[in-house]
Design goal:
heterodimer, A: two-stranded antiparallel sheet, 33 helices, 10 strands, elongated, B: SH3 type barrels, 5-stranded antiparallel β-sheet, 18% helix, binds guanosine-5'-diphosphate
């Protein structure tokens, strides 16, 4: 079967993903574009004897290098092998979309246009004559709606038809003056019998655009001597006509004029007086004064929801794992194997899975913010404030993602073009408490504060983390990252009710990632920690205690002795040795060696902190307390000041190993990871020290 | 006049964009080119950022960038 390779191109939010999702029985493969972590989705399906392979290129306003996404798209279109371009266009905003289309047409490849969002266009009274538009642009235009699933079959047929066309005429019509200059060059090239993969007209345009590769190609050839004056002449005419010597200006003008011209001939608008849905919402959400409070209120609501609703399934999960641990132990008996499986693996993984509901709700909230179009409004509202601290309104997006997980947040920072702005944002993302830290907060807040307060305290933790981050940004901006700012220019897309499928797609992917971590990384870490806390064995001590226990008279003293032994064993285990060694560093903050170890293991992954505490405090208790939850154990073992100080430390110090690796890659070197480590650890230590002493003063 | 001198709710026409190459290309891919009709939709607190509309595209930009756009 023949394969038709399609490059899917469109401006952001035109419904590219929705469109390929609407093709039946398609297989999706997600990967990365080589060299960068921009997501690459390839969809395969078969129809009418052809295999389709559609590569979804990142949304681009134009084929420049303004953002990484746009560079990826341009490079793919220039260098990769594909048979035709499918350009998805938002019918409700066709003029701006056609700007990109003119750039695509200039590539002189086969092209099919999907006029998507037809349903919305009809509602808004936008009527497009797609036949006429197709004639003007010289390509097929098909009206589609990814949501209503109309026009999909026609689109596939148009692709097949275009694929089978032999000739590929160049249809782009510039203004008269421009066309004249082009035809001069073209007729010269024809006379000289120049052969080229693309049409001569496209070649002439490349020459006029000062395209580097084209120049390199001609530079070495004798024909250059004759060609150069012709091209030069053309430039002089154009400069004169456009009254500027800026070629970009001239081409931008041409593109805009072409888009405008095509729209004028093919689009009819019903007279509209009604304020659009988006405008109505925006008068409230984007209001000078109430906009920000509404946003803060929404965020507060999200955190309340995360905690209140999340706690219901948490109880079930907790009970389930407790049952599993007891079951395993009674099934395998009192052996080392039972201990490693139950106390190590199951307890560790259970502590992580416990927080899945919270994480799903949080990611759901972030996905909703993104897909509705509210996120860029928030960037607008916050830019004034952020800019004061040396940040960019767009930094908001990676920073908010940071509340979910630092890994995608570090990647999201790529939307910032300026290196300094990006580095600065990367440095403070860690201050936004990620989802994996939530379990630690929930545990400590639950143990140390009353139940009514938990939601508020959690909110306080997140807000103060964010504020600290912003202050840190200011300090860094004034010291390490001095310099110019990146411009703030962004589109504010229309509000859209997100489709359930798209949201599900993102949230389930995030939840799976979290579970995968629990299943592999955390499992391994839990077993390691179990091992480190159980070895080396202390047979002599055990024997001594065994004798003592046998001689003991009351049940009470037996329990006391068992506890003493367990504690002794733990303190002399590998883990205990490490913990004790680092105790001097942590003791001014009020931590005992177990908390010190928990923080150290937390460098691997924040989920491990809870798992470690579970293992350390679980093993240290007498058998009779086996049933009480981890929260109770924390409550009896850790004082309020130490707990607060611990929370502060967790808020600030380095995120997990995986995030650190991504940070290093995004920032561009080990050097930066070193800076980040020193910066965050020092800040964490100082602030925890303050928190501990202040809290102690008041209690 | 500069774009950031225009009041909320008023419309104007772009005469020239005086900015670096990248910013200018970005503006033009949003349709903000010579001759485009622009409407001011609103400002954020303290007028640090503003929202403008060109045709159907809503764009957010800083006042410092709006300063680079000459309008009638
Ligand atoms: N009404 C309508 N909405 C659509 C259509 N296609 C996509 N959308 C919505 O537009 C938004 C952006 O779509 P998406 O596929 O994420 O855009 P992409 O950025 O181009 O991949 C989503 O909320 C979709 O549900 C359509 O044909 N009609």
């Amino acid at each position: 079967m023949e394969t038709i390779r399609v490059a899917l191109v469109g401006q952001p939010n035109v419904g590219k993903s929705a469109l390929i999702n609407s093709v039946g029985n398609a297989r999706l493969r997600v990967g990365n574009f080589s060299g960068v972590t921009v997501k690459k989705e390839v969809v395969r399906f078969s129809r009418d004897g052809y295999d389709f392979e559609i590569t979804d290129l990142p949304g681009s306003y134009s084929l420049t290098d303004y953002t990484i996404e746009e560079r990826v798209t341009r490079e793919y279109l220039d260098d990769s092998d594909y048979d035709l371009i499918l350009n998805v266009v938002d019918s409700t905003n066709i003029e701006r979309n056609l700007y990109l289309t003119t750039e695509l047409l200039a590539l002189n490849k086969k092209l099919v246009i999907a006029l998507n969002m037809t349903d919305e266009a009809v509602k808004e009274g936008v009527h497009i004559d797609e036949q006429q538009l197709g004639k003007i642009l010289g390509v097929s235009c098909i009206k589609t709606s990814a949501i209503k699933k109309t026009g999909i079959e026609e689109l596939i047929q148009a692709i097949i038809k275009s694929y089978n066309l032999r000739e590929n005429r160049f249809h782009l019509q510039f203004s008269e003056v421009f066309e004249q200059e082009i035809s001069h060059i073209v007729s010269f090239l024809e006379e000289k019998k120049i052969h080229c993969k693309i049409s001569l007209k496209a070649l002439a345009i490349k020459l006029l655009r000062e395209d580097k590769e084209t120049y390199l190609r001609f530079h070495e050839e004798p024909i250059w001597i004759e060609l150069q004056p012709i091209v030069n002449d053309a430039y002089q005419h154009l400069y004169l006509h456009y009254d500027t010597k800026d070629l970009d200006d001239i081409f931008n003008d041409e593109k805009a004029a072409m888009a405008k011209g095509a729209v004028a001939e093919t689009v009819q608008l019903d007279k509209q007086v009604k304020q659009s849905f988006t405008d109505k919402i925006d008068t409230l959400l984007m209001h000078q004064f109430v906009g920000l409070p509404i946003f803060l209120f929404l965020m507060w609501g999200l955190f309340q929801l995360t905690f209140e609703v999340g706690s219901i399934p948490m109880d079930w999960i907790d009970a389930f794992f407790a049952l599993l641990i007891d079951g395993t132990k009674s099934f395998l008996g009192d052996t080392e194997l039972a201990s490693v499986i139950a106390d190590g693996a199951i307890a560790g993984v259970g502590a992580v899975v416990l927080f899945l509901p919270n994480i799903i709700i949080l990611f759901l909230g972030i996905a909703l913010l993104e897909t509705t179009g509210y996120m860029s409004r928030v960037a607008f509202l916050l830019d004034g404030f952020f800019h004061k601290f040396g940040l960019h309104g767009k930094s908001f997006i990676p920073l908010v993602s940071g509340f979910g997980c630092s890994v995608p947040a570090y990647m999201a920072a790529r939307t910032l073009k300026n290196d300094r702005d990006r580095l600065l944002t990367l440095f403070i993302i860690g201050f936004m408490s990620c989802g994996a830290r939530l379990p630690i907060y929930v545990l400590f807040v639950g143990a140390l504060f009353s139940e009514e307060q938990t939601g508020n305290i959690l909110f306080l933790i997140y807000i103060s983390g964010a504020l600290l981050g912003i202050i840190a940004a200011k300090v860094l901006k004034m010291t390490a990252f001095k310099g110019d700012d990146e411009p703030f220019v962004m589109e504010m897309p229309k509000y859209r009710l997100p489709s359930f499928k798209l949201i599900w797609h993102t949230v389930s992917a995030q939840a799976m990632m979290y579970l995968k971590k629990a299943g592999t990384y955390i499992l391994l870490a839990s077993v390691l920690i179990w091992f480190a806390s159980n070895y080396p064995k202390q047979p002599e001590m055990e024997q001594q205690y065994q004798v003592k226990i046998e001689q003991a008279e009351t049940q009470q003293s037996i329990t006391a002795l068992t506890n003493e032994l367990a504690l002794y064993k733990l303190e002399n285990s590998y883990l205990g040795i490490v913990g004790h060694a680092s105790e001097p560093f942590f003791s001014p903050l009020g931590y005992d060696w177990r908390m010190a170890i928990a923080l150290e293991t937390g460098l691997a992954a924040k989920e491990v902190v809870v798992a470690t505490l579970g293992i350390l405090y679980g093993l240290g208790e007498g058998e009779d307390e086996q049933s009480s939850g981890l929260i109770d154990k924390i409550r009896t073992n850790i004082s309020l000041p130490a707990g607060i100080s611990f929370i502060v430390f967790v808020m600030i110090y380095l995120p997990c190993l995986a995030a650190s690796m991504v940070f290093m890659r995004e920032a561009g070197g080990w050097k930066y990871l070193g800076y980040l480590f020193v910066f965050t650890t020092a800040t964490a230590w100082i602030l925890s020290f303050l928190a501990f002493n202040v809290a102690q003063f008041f209690t | 006049m500069k774009l950031n001198d225009i009041k909320k709710g008023q419309s104007t026409t772009v005469i020239a964009v005086i900015a670096g190459r990248e910013l200018k290309n970005r503006f033009s891919s949003f349709g903000l080119v010579k001759g485009a009709k622009v409407t001011i939709e609103g400002h954020s607190l303290a007028k640090k950022t503003m929202e403008i509309r060109i045709n159907k595209t809503h764009i957010a930009l800083r006042s410092s960038e709006a300063e680079k756009i000459e309008v009638t």
